[in-house]
Amino acid sequence: MRSIKSKIIVFSILATLIPSLGLGILSFQQNETMINENVTRELRALANYASRELELWIKEQNLTVRELATSKILIEGLSKDNQAQARKNKLKVQRKGLELYLQSVHKRLETVLELTVVDVEGGILASNVESPFPVKLSPDWPQDASIQGEVVAPPQWNADYATAVLSIAVPILSVDDFILGALIVTFDLRDIQSNLKDKIKSPPGDVLLLDKDGNVMLASDAAIVNPENPVSLDPAVIERLRNNPGEYEIFQGPRQEKVAGLAYMSEKPLITIIATRSHQLIYAFWEQQRNLFVGLISIIILVVAAIAFQMSHAIVVPLRRLIDATGKIVQGDLNVELTSMQRNELGQLTQMFNQMTNQLRLDQAKIEEASAAMQQKNALLETLSVTDSLTGLFNRNKLNAIINDQLARYERNKRPFSVLMIDVDHFKTLNDSLGHVAGDEIIAGIARKISQSIRNVDFAARFGGDEFIIILADTAISEALKTAERIRAHAASVHCSTISKTFKVTLSIGVIQSEPEDTSLTILLSRVDGALYEAKRSGRDRVYCVQPKSDSAT
Ligand SMILES: Nc1nc2c(ncn2[C@@H]2O[C@H](COP(=O)(O)OP(=O)(O)OP(=O)(O)O)[C@@H](O)[C@H]2O)c(=O)[nH]1
């Protein structure tokens, strides 16, 4: 059986927990959605900014290269006459002159790593370095270059320079717009690193430039790029990001921490720009709020549980006391008194319980009193039901019961009892001459004499009119005879106060001892009546004793 207390506590906790958790989860989901939208917006802004900056930077470098390609030294150096002259003389002077020029330009431009001049077929004519970085021009380069003006090779990692590089090839045109060759300039991409993010306007996060293999070539934070061993991201992640540009996902970032990031694809040059932001920083506030919420909920639940415990305690303890007290009453103990300081329904209930108990005690006292009176009356009634009202001796009914009882005992233990039947001689004469009232007094007087003449274990009953029967328990005929004589002697004179006279009264007494033939009350009474008859017949004022079968009658 689950107690009320535990039910109240469980209900209170659930009633607090369910709405709080429901609202909390809803609110956190909304916050999370908002955070995700903000993160997407910020990451897109970051990637867009970097992309724009990269585009501008490339345009700027294009202009530089284009300007250099119009140099008179280059045009003349590549003119057909000079080329033919140089080949004919097998002179390297022409190449040397170009190299010196390129070296002087290189010194002026900090972001330039290499400057190389190639002929129309792509053959290297001169460079500012001994072994220039191989830039592969496409087979249809001359046409492309003449139409588009330049060819930009996709950015890539250069192990020799330990940096990301970008090469731009611009045609060198003769004065009559004939393509003489090309100037290929390789730039150090680190030049744009500080511009990938605007220190003030850009949202927090990192911008990464990846090569086609997914290696981080450049990052807005230089610390991310490892010149010895370029960091690479999970190819599967890059694949997904490239397939869903502008959509962010969570993955392991270059700093080996969880980041949210999205990709932006640039076509020219072919480059992947990834904007990332630390997952921990994005959700730090959200997680702080969540922890605060969980803490608050825990405290509220503890407080609610404590209040519920207190409340249920205040209900259950008085109830338990009422139950215990009721149990005592059920077992008949009405000495129960409860105290209650509460001024609520339970206090009222306790008060009413005490009133009820008081009332029960009063009722029980009345019942006990009535019961005692009833018992007294019953005892009186019982006495009256077995007593003759005139003499106070047993009445005929009781006599029958006594005789039956004695017969049963005799049958069991074979110890004989004796019966005396007594009749007042000539009582009719007394009655007629003295009156009925005096007659009654004489009957009562004789009864008293009989009572005084027998033992406590013997029974005396009024058989009817002026006749009495005495049962002498466990008494043989010889003792019975003595008792009969004693009674006869005692009753010789009886005082009648009604007429203030003492009369000589004689009694005739028949005596028998129980015999095995006495199988019923009727047989026994018939035999003793016979004995009395014999006493009367033989002259009255005497005892006639029927000797048991072995003896002769007296
Ligand atoms: N006063 C009084 N008389 C009673 C009562 N019951 C019976 N009697 C009278 O008692 C008398 C009994 O008389 P019997 O026993 O028949 O005759 P007896 O005169 O005693 O003569 P024997 O018995 O032959 O000696 C009758 O007159 C009855 O009316 C009683 O309760 N009170």
From TrEMBL:
Q: Which GO terms describe its biological process?
A: signal transduction
Q: Which residues form a coiled coil?
A: none
- SMART domains in UniProt: GGDEF (SM00267), HAMP (SM00304)
One Gene Ontology cellular component annotation held by this UniProt entry: plasma membrane
Subcellular localization is given as: Cell membrane
Q: What is a GO molecular function of this protein?
A: diguanylate cyclase activity
Q: What region holds the HAMP domain?
A: 313-365
Protein keywords: Cell membrane, Membrane, Transmembrane, Transmembrane helix
Membrane-crossing residue ranges in chain numbering = 292-311
Does the keyword Cell membrane feature in the UniProt annotation?
yes
- Membrane-topology descriptor: Multi-pass membrane protein
Q: Which reaction does it catalyse?
A: 2 GTP = 3',3'-c-di-GMP + 2 diphosphate
Query: Taking every annotated instance into account, which residue ranges of this chain make up the domain GGDEF?
Result: 415-548
The EC number(s) given in the record are 2.7.7.65
Looking up InterPro entries in the UniProt record yields: dCache_1, Diguanylate_Cyclase, GGDEF_dom, HAMP_dom, Nucleotide_cyclase, Rev_trsase/Diguanyl_cyclase
Name the UniProt record assigns to this protein: diguanylate cyclase
